[in-house]
Amino acid sequence: MERIESISIETESPSTPAATGATCTPCSVPTGNLLPLLHEIRHALSSWLDDGSIHVIDLGSIPMAPDEETQLLETLGQGEIQATLSALGNSEVIETGIAGVWLITHHNEEGVLVGRFIEICHIPEILKSQTEDARFALQALDNLLATAEIEK
Questions:
Q1: What is the pTM of this model?
Q2: What is the pLDDT of residues 114-150, one digit of tens each?
Q3: Using H for helix, E for strand and C for coil, what is the string for the chain?
């Protein structure tokens, strides 16, 4: 086995920003992640149709140049459903032009983007009523009906 000191290391492109000491914004050059991401969405959609498995992709965890994210959103398109939720900031849920593929974007109370996800499912979890909330709502409705005068 070779010792680490004997392994030669070569730099292929000394003109890259990192090699020249220049600074660059993260992912300012194309990353090549757009096509693999679209393939992941395609396979997740196929799996969901086959066995009902839900798949969530955290777009913040995938390096993409701004142009690539724009291209992704344009490729997915926009469907017929949009919902906005207001809880600790605004969240927007958009059905893409591909049925079963949803884009979920979360902002904090100051409007700063804090997360963007693609969810492959019937309906995103964030839009579903929580069981505990429904229990409270049922009790509130029972109380209302117990005290309401109902016209016959």
A1: 0.73
A2: 999 999 999 999 999 999 999 999 999 999 999 877 6
A3: CCCHHHCCCCCCCCCCHHHHCCCCCCCCCCCCCHHHHHHHHHHHHHHHHHHCCCEEEEHHHCCCCHHHHHHHHHHHCCCCCEEEEECCCEEEEEECCCCCEEEEEEECCCCCEEEEEEEECCCCHHHCCCHHHHHHHHHHHHHHHHHCCCCC
